[in-house]
Design brief:
four-stranded mixed sheet; Endonuclease, Chain A; 9 strands; about 45% helix; about 290 residues; alpha+beta; Very-short-patch-repair endonuclease; three-stranded antiparallel sheet; 2 domains; single chain; Restrct_endonuc-II-like
Length: about 290
């Protein structure tokens, strides 16, 4: 877990620092007082310090960014903080979906607490994508995350059980959630040609969801185009979507997908098409549908 460089006086005392040690550190510049009972070391996180100075702690979407989870665009410039009801500040404090959460004092909320607050500040597909990122990178199970969140109501429980830790990027998660909400039977991380994996599959239509950093190297570019050529030869259709397509141009993407599915071009009607789908299903099941 990342260290924000901001500590309570109580925590410093528990680590063996005396009040005299703390006063000396403040005078020497090794510690900076942010507010009563809260101190920052050199190199501390600036956003967390702003939240603490304003009577709160870094929370919600800002805490998720601090923990280096994927966060959708449009939230980077916002400060999300959680504040005790008996404190006030100039920044608006985020509110949880349920009653306020009591947690061990820290300048940055842990991920389960941040996710509970972020339900109000993110769209459902965005929240699920962030949750996917956490489950995928930490190998945490949905059940463990639900337990860490404590008491959750039906809205949060529904969102939580729509997550999928197999998703490899935020754009993939958002595309999956949106398509399933429209009734599409979306397969996550299906096995395809040469024991490789795709992002999503609807029938014989492969959907690849590139991230903002995708094709950062010539090798990535060559590999993906080689795979697209091989899958076309094998009988798959590949629709490769950019980060901008999914985040900013979804209406156009959906129109294209509907143009394919409306005429049943994605249906496995021929013997050859049924065979490649069956191979994909068997291979995916055999590997637990979890790419390395």
């Amino acid at each position: 877990m990342r260290d924000s460089g901001i500590y309570t006086r109580k925590r410093l005392r528990a680590q063996g620092y005396t009040d005299q040690d703390i006063r000396r550190a403040i005078l020497s510049g090794d510690l900076q007082r942010l507010r009563d009972g809260w101190l920052a070391a050199p190199g501390h996180d600036a956003a967390a310090a702003t939240a603490v100075r304003d009577g709160g702690v870094l929370a919600c979407v800002s805490a998720l960014s601090f923990h280096r989870l994927w966060v959708p665009p449009g939230h980077a410039g916002e400060l999300h903080l959680r504040r005790s009801p008996n404190l006030a500040g100039k920044h608006r404090a985020c509110r949880p979906l349920q009653a306020p959460i009591r947690t061990t004092p820290s300048a940055v909320d842990p991920v389960p607490v941040a996710l509970k607050y972020a339900v109000r500040c993110l769209q459902p597909d965005e929240w699920i994508a962030v949750c996917d990122s956490y489950l995928n990178t930490t190998r945490t199970t949905v059940e463990d995350l639900a337990e860490a969140m404590g008491r959750i109501g039906p809205t949060l429980r529904d969102l939580l059980y729509r997550t999928d830790p197999r998703s490899q990027s935020g754009t993939e998660s958002i595309a999956r959630v949106r398509l399933r909400a429209l009734g599409y039977d979306v397969v996550v991380q299906p096995s395809i040609a040469d024991a490789q994996w795709a992002d999503l599959r609807i029938g014989t239509l492969i959907i690849e969801c590139d991230s903002v950093l995708h094709h950062s190297s010539r090798e990535d570019y060559e590999r993906d185009h080689h795979r697209d050529r091989r899958t076309l030869v094998d009988g798959w259709m590949t629709l490769r979507l950019t980060y901008g397509d999914i985040i900013y141009g979804w209406d156009g993407v959906l129109e294209d997908i509907r143009a394919i599915t409306r005429t049943d071009r994605h249906r496995a009607r021929s013997a050859r098409a049924r065979a490649i789908v069956q191979r994909s299903v068997r291979s995916s099941a055999g590997e637990g549908n979890l790419p390395e």
